[in-house]
Amino acid sequence: MSLGQQLAPHLPFLRRYGRALTGSQTEGDRYVRATLEAIVSAPEEFPKDVDPRLGLYRTFQAIWSSAHIDDDRFPGEASSDPEAIARARLSRIAPLSRQALLLTAMEGFTVEDAAYLIDVSDDEIDTLVSDALSEIEQQTRARVLVIEDEPIIAMDIETIVRDLGHEVTGVAVTRDEAVALAMEDRPGLVLADIQLADDSSGIDAVKDILAQFNVPVIFITAFPERLLTGERPEPTFLITKPFQRSTVKAAISQALFFDQSSVPAG
User: Fold this and answer.
1) Which in 4, 156, 183, 221 has the greatest CB count within 10 A?
2) Which of 218, 227, 226, 163 is nearest to 193 (CA)?
3) Higher-confidence residue: 53 or 22?
4) How far apart are the C-alpha atoms of 16 and 60, rounded to whole Å?
């Protein structure tokens, strides 16, 4: 099997990581493209002593890190550009902490693998993840709409949201109910399942809501490949079922981290 064939299944998830790291589909995809170009131009430099997925992310990390060395420009949060907002907040959060959080909680890498990817010791990863969650949670607070038709899952999500210090505006089980709740009490974040109780679509519900106002959205699905197609638009934040609580926490923190309407905790 060629290297390209080995890497192909992992590209949708690398795009997910790139978008979560940068807060932008365009920027995330740009780094993924640069990663692939680097591999094609110098295949002999691709890590050969690790799993292909690890080698792919390691190459991505090297390119992303080199692009951010000595970059101390952090535009103010008044900008509406997600990357500008992120940079302002990054000035107050250690970048390694965020990378450790995403790699372990969202991408599912082990502590040992994450340590390899960002070039730190195993012992540092848990501390970095804890620091990232704490710092991001202190910076952001939001009112959250949950679109989920499974009662147990909805309750679990509600608990996670409240544990993070956010408020739940409502739980919708159908497209129409979701849109109605959003119009009645505008949320600052939407957590949306795809398949809803009356066979309506969470994707359609989100489209209806976004047609009225902008709000960060996190999709939840058992079939992430249906959304990670490479076609635009793709969701910036996507959680795969069954999910870990830490994954939901990481996605919420990251989504709000790039959103200008979330406010610092007081």
Assistant:
1) 221
2) 218
3) 53
4) 12
- State how far the Cα of 213 lies from the Cα of 210, in Å rounded to an integer: 5
Taking alpha carbons only, the member of 245, 170, 257 closest to residue 216 is: 257
Return the beta strands (E) in 86-242 as ranges. Answer: 143-147, 167-172, 189-193, 217-221, 237-240
**Nearest-5° angle of CA 175, CA 176, CA 179?**
85
- The backbone region for 265, taken as left when phi is positive above 0, alpha when psi lies in -120 to 50, beta otherwise, is beta
Q: Which two tokens stand for residue 97?
A: 């902490």
Backbone phi and psi for residue 229, each to the nearest 5 degrees, phi listed first = -100, -15
CATH of the domain spanning 76-139: 1.10.10.10
In the CATH hierarchy, which fold is given to the domain comprising 1-71?
Answer: Rna Polymerase Sigma Factor; Chain: A (1.10.1740)
Instruction: Report pLDDT digits (tens) over 27-75.
Output: 889 999 999 999 999 999 999 899 999 999 999 999 988 876 444 333 3
For the chain, which residues make up each domain, given as ranges? 1-71, 76-139, 141-247
| DSSP label at residue 47 | -
The reply to whether the predicted model has a pTM over 0.90 is no
- Round the average pLDDT of the chain to a whole number and report it: 83
Average pLDDT over residues 4-31: 89
As a whole number, mean pLDDT of residues 77-105 equals 66
Asked if 47 contacts 223 with a C-beta cutoff of 8 angstroms, the reply is no
Mean pLDDT value of segment 242-254:
85
Q: Is CATH 3.30.565.10 correct for 141-247?
A: no
